[in-house]
Structure formats: C-alpha cells, structure tokens
Write a structure and sequence with these properties.
The complex is a heterodimer of chains A (110) and B (114). Chain A is an all-beta fold and 110 residues long. Chain A is built from no helices and 12 strands. Chain A starts with a strand and ends with a strand. Classes of the chains: A mainly beta (110), B mainly beta (114).
Chain lengths: 110, 114
C-alpha cells in the first residue's frame, strides 16, 4: 500500500543553517505530494505541495522538488530561523485521503 | 473564510463520562476527516466522511468511539465512556479536492480524561 517515510527526528540546527528533511514514498503512479507544518499548540498547516513529477513547491523560503526517479520529496530551506521550529509532515494523496509520514521535529537554536 | 472550526479547544473530563467533540468544516468541502494525535502513536486517522457518508471507520479504536455527520456543515466525535488513554489532541480536517489542495485542519481539541 501507499506509505511515506520521513527522516527520523528530532533535528536540531543553529539559526541560519541549511535545512534538509528527507521524505521518500511508496505509491502506485504519481500521487500529489505535500509538506505540512505544525507549530506548538496548533493544527497542521499546508506548507507546500507538488501535484506532478518534476514540480517544485515553495513557500516561506522552503522548497521541495517531486523526484519520481528517486520517489522523493525532500524539504529544504537555505537559512532557517528560530520561528521555523515546528514538526514537519510529508504526505501523499492516496485513495480518497492523505497518507502522512511520522513527522520530524525541528528545533532551531539562536 | 473562518477555516475549520472545532469546539471545545480544551476539555477535561472524568473517566466514565461522555465526551462530544464538534467540527464545522469549510463551506463547500465534501470530505471531512477526524484524527487523533498523541506523543506515543503520532497522528492517527480515525474516520472520514464523503458527502456526509462515513467511508472508512477502520481507525476508530473501539466501540466507545462514534462519529456522525448529520449535514454538510457539522460533525461530532463522541466517546462514551471515556478512559484516561483517550487523552489526546483530536483534529478535524476538511477538503474539496484532496489531490489539488490537500486538507485544511482545525486547531484541535485537547482532551484530558482524569
């Protein structure tokens, strides 16, 4: 069945560091892919998405490229801020629902 | 748009009591999802509806849990009787075209059963 595997957390970085959170998936065909972010005490918010292979999603300085060859959708940001501290979820569109990864907790230290 | 609205935001109840969580999806969205989130188990899909009809309730943990969607603008998740292990954050989410827009989540209800 469909599944998403994310980089194990927690991840701790210093402010202005480069961020990569790995996400790979298993699915039939080429499903839409998403990154969600959950700030403390809040619900999940859509961060970015890509609906077809080779698309790049971007928002708030974050980017992810849909790579069908490697079945990956890694999240990147060139210079992280303390305010980026949150839990990040990768997801794919399965049959009538999203399939989520387990989440990666990111902490940015000043 | 007010987004997905959940109530209450926090609920503290005693073991054995009935608990009802409420959700108002975004107008026009035809999918509604209920999730539970805990540190131990992460994010779990409990049940989802399409056009007010339950499609998959295989994630509902046991018969103490029930969910209804009497109309397109309202859904409830009920736990009766509640137990301490039901303590979690419960999220509702709605969607129109999942593959294009994903879900919109509510802010959640933090349930504590003592």
């Amino acid at each position: 069945g469909d599944s998403v595997t994310q980089m194990e957390g927690p991840v701790t970085l210093s402010e202005e560091a480069f961020l990569t959170i790995n996400c790979t998936y298993t699915a039939t065909g080429y499903p839409s892919l998403f990154w969600y972010v959950q700030y403390p005490g809040e619900g999940l918010q859509l961060l970015l998405k890509a609906t077809k292979a080779d698309d790049k999603g971007s928002n708030k300085g974050f980017e992810a490229t849909y790579r069908k060859e490697t079945t990956s959708f890694h999240l990147e940001k060139g210079s992280v801020q303390v305010s980026d501290s949150a839990v990040y979820f990768c997801a794919l569109k399965g049959a009538q629902k999203l399939v989520f990864g387990q989440g990666t907790r990111l902490t940015i230290n000043p | 748009d007010a987004g997905v609205i959940q109530s209450p935001r926090h609920e503290v109840t005693e073991m054995g009591q009935e608990v009802t969580l409420r959700c108002k999806p975004i107008s026009g969205h035809d999918y509604l999802f209920w999730y539970r989130q805990t540190m131990m188990r992460g994010l779990e899909l409990l049940i989802y509806f399409n056009n007010n009809v339950p499609i998959d309730d295989s994630g509902m943990p046991e018969d103490r849990f029930s969910a209804k969607m009497p109309n397109a603008s309202f859904s409830t998740l009920k736990i009766q009787p509640s137990e301490p292990r039901d303590s979690a954050v419960y999220f509702c989410a709605s969607s129109l075209v999942i593959g294009l827009y994903g879900y919109t989540f509510g802010s959640g209800t933090r349930l504590t059963v003592v």
